[in-house]
Amino acid sequence: MTHNMSVDLCGVRLKNPVMTASGTFGSGAEFSEFFDLNRLGAVVTKGVASTPWEGNPTPRICETPSGMLNAIGLQNPGFEVFAGRDLKFLEETLLPDEEPAEEGSLALSSGMTGTKVVVNVCGHSEEEYLDCVEKLSGERRVDFLEINISCPNVREGGIAFGTDPKGVERITAAVRKAARQPVIMKLSPNVTSIAEIARAAEAGGADALSLINTLTGMKIDVERRTFALANRTGGLSGPAIHPVAVRMVYECAKAVRIPVIGMGGIRTAEDALEMIMAGATAVSVGTVSFHDQRAALGVIDGIEDYLERHCVPDVRDLIGCVR
Questions:
Q1: Active site residue 151
Q2: How many other C-beta atoms can be found within 10 angstroms of the C-beta atom of residue 186?
Q3: 3-state secondary structure (DSSP) of residue 26
Q4: Catalytic residue (choose from 151, 252, 311, 321)
Q5: pTM
Q6: Quick one: pLDDT at residue 181?
Q7: Is the distance from CB of 260 to CB of 253 less than 8 angstroms?
């Protein structure tokens, strides 16, 4: 029995629902040494700004039980280097789309669609976001923009927009007006009501949502009697946050009509399927890739195996099946 693994995200066909998570995969150059990136539904790049950012001082990563804290601060080389190096690599590495198959065709499950590119965009201000978005609008190989309004490790912009519904709606509307590609707003879990934030992004014109970003946490080195991170706080990711992420994906999927991309502690196909059954159209695999560089492939293969074992002809039949 042939199973359809493809999903529709904002009118764009993904060969399967598995993506990488921004900040954990770079542009994929390092991971291409371990597996063929063309197996993925989409590659999500590390955050890029219109100009280079140095990020936070070190130390800025530490392990925690069932997770890790990071306070990288969205270090990135800026648009010019990103376009000339990272986008060029992806354009040379990822195969182009083949002839589109008809809706409902079993050929969709065999990878008739090329791996898509999602560029994560960051900024300190609305002007910085828009400058980068406008520059990316002219890049042919960029299929989606993921707007990071949820990083807890920068002192300006980002989280300031992402925790205020009015701010979320305003920045979303401004980005949507400037962007040529579908706009995915990346939401922060560090809010009172994630559903309220999701509705604000939808009201601003978002084409999709991605969640969750990291939870704000802290670790203290008791032997040195100081903070483990120079930034004092950092973003907690990994298996520890997965149940929180599933709950928030469920709440957002019920609150909005646009697609939701689920992330947060996904290690296995079972973790990904929880997100999908909670209402996610696609999922992003992140922190586990530091431990297992081929983890995303295991998730893809595991979902295919689940469809086979349970005689489910189409992965889309599982989206939001838990009410």
A1: yes
A2: 29
A3: coil
A4: 151
A5: 0.93
A6: 97
A7: yes
